[in-house]
Design goal:
Blueprint lengths: L7 H9 L8 H5 L6 H6 L6 H10 L3 H11 L2 H14 L7 H15 L3 H12 L8 H9 L19 H15 L6 H16 L22
Length: 219
């Protein structure tokens, strides 16, 4: 069965977000459950950029976060979660949560099995109520085996576990400290994700991470 070629407009919008390989939003939305308002915006022709822009316009932030967490490649999605978690750092963040966030950043800069398992161990020791913990879970679940190291039995993660962890990280970061600023936070974080999808670093001016930059670093 032949598929129709993408229109010039669709090709242009795909080129604007080169990290997102899907040409239509519906391809991505099969991976998670949309709210009713989000479903009303979806059709067979709408592109990822068009769809997420419309979700943001109607302040359907939960759908927009889930959409981008599933649309981005896993490494880029984890990086986005790291940026959001670091932005939302509290003055009294626990050492375990900071260790988890730093481990997730380390995996982004150098995505090896060693750094992936280190992220998983750090996430397991940290508070799941912290946005810093979930990028580390996302990094660990980005692999194809979540069994303990040395295990003779392979345990694959369930489908889209990594994207769901990124979604949790972003949502917690946006709402953790002051729900009155949640909408502003969501808009800022979603703009960062769109920048990453376009090939950018997602960093805001002055934003830094603590991880040492590796040869495969995003920025």
């Amino acid at each position: 069965m032949q598929t129709s070629p993408a229109s010039p407009q669709m090709q242009s919008e795909t080129a604007e977000l080169p990290k997102i390989t899907a040409t239509r939003a519906r391809e991505i939305c099969r991976a998670f459950e949309l709210s009713e308002p989000g479903q009303r915006l979806l059709d067979d022709r709408i592109t990822p950029l068009q769809f997420v822009s419309r979700l943001i316009e109607i302040e359907c932030f939960a759908d927009a976060v889930s959409f981008l967490a599933h649309a981005l490649p896993k490494r880029e999605a984890v990086w986005w979660g790291c940026l959001c978690a670091r932005d939302a750092l509290a003055a009294q963040v626990s050492p375990a949560a900071m260790t988890a966030l730093t481990a997730a950043e380390a995996w982004v800069y150098k995505p090896t099995e060693e750094t992936r398992h280190a992220a998983g161990a750090a996430a397991g020791a940290a508070d799941t109520g912290s946005p810093c913990t979930w990028p580390a879970f996302a990094a660990f679940w980005a692999g194809d085996d979540i069994a303990p190291r040395g295990s003779s039995v392979k345990i694959p993660p369930t489908e889209h576990m990594s994207a769901k962890a990124v979604t949790a990280a972003v949502a917690l970061a946006a709402t953790k400290h002051d729900r009155e600023t949640a909408a502003e936070n969501f808009q800022r974080y979603l703009a960062q994700a769109i920048d990453i999808a376009g090939g950018g670093s997602g960093r805001r001016p002055g934003q830094r991470s603590s991880a040492a930059r590796g040869s495969s670093g995003i920025v």
